[in-house]
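Lecture notes, part 5. Sequence design as translation. It can be helpful to think of inverse folding as translation between two languages: the language of shapes and the language of residues. The source text, in structure tokens, appears below.
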């Protein structure tokens, strides 16, 4: 792994607890059929119900036990794959877009898994969903790059979000990142110590070298980068 780049300047950061369009507004507008649809699916926990599980997430699943969060679960390839590989664990997918929540819920149904749930929520509002120690781990796969300098403040891999995640993940729990965007790797490694995370292992090319962890599932975006022969990086951290 190359040396982390030192950020030239500290960028203004997206504020935590930013307002996001809730279901009432979107439903009232009637423009997105997936808003109503996602509420009918048994794999989806509506946002307002999900907030009620704060501090007792284990009760949201058929069998109690530690929960692993995937942020930005997209179409659900990874979530359904991990849930099928690990029926003894509980998996929670967080996704901002209603349509992707619906597609992911269909994936879970097709995979026949009952140990995964989805919530349509904004990852900048995690404190509304989780209390300290609620999570066994967090997996983040190909977060949006926001590649331009003027967009950098929108990046999820940031000190405020990492600090919050360290609060919600119990000691010894893990944070896994896979990304095609090298600055996310550099930022995560640069911010780890000050936000409560200790590096375990990294990979400069998951396709060539494999992921640093044993049980991996290829994501939808990862497959696209693999097909183009472009590297996918991985960083594995543990809650210090
Ligand atoms: C580039 S896609 C990657 C999808 C999937 N993880 C994969 O690897 O195939 C990023 C995903 O994160 C979601 N996302 C972006 N910002 C988010 C936020 N603030 N909260 C929750 N999900 C978000 C997007 O809607 C999108 O589905």
């Amino acid at each position: 792994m190359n040396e982390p780049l030192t950020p030239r300047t500290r960028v203004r950061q997206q504020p935590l607890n930013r307002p996001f369009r809730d279901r009432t507004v979107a439903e009232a507008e009637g423009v997105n059929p997936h808003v109503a649809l996602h509420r009918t699916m048994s794999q989806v926990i509506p946002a307002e119900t999900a907030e009620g599980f704060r501090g007792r997430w284990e009760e949201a699943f058929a069998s109690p036990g530690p929960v692993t969060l995937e942020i930005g679960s997209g179409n659900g390839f990874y979530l359904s794959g991990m849930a099928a590989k690990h029926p003894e664990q509980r998996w929670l997918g967080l996704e901002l877009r209603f349509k992707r929540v619906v597609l992911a819920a269909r994936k879970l149904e097709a995979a026949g898994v009952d140990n995964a749930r989805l919530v349509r929520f904004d990852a900048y509002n995690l404190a509304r969903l989780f209390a300290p120690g609620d999570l066994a781990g967090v997996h983040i796969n190909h977060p949006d790059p926001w590649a331009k300098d003027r967009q950098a403040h929108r990046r999820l891999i940031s000190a405020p979000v990492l600090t919050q995640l360290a609060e919600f993940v119990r000691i010894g729990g893990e944070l896994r990142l896979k990304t095609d965007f090298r600055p996310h790797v550099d930022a995560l490694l640069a911010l780890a110590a000050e936000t409560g995370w200790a590096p375990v292992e990294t990979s400069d090319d998951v396709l060539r070298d494999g992921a640093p962890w044993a049980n991996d599932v290829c994501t939808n975006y990862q497959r696209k980068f693999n097909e183009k022969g472009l590297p996918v990086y991985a960083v594995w951290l543990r809650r210090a």
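The translated text above is only one of many valid answers, since several sequences can fold into similar shapes. The radius of gyration is 17 Å.
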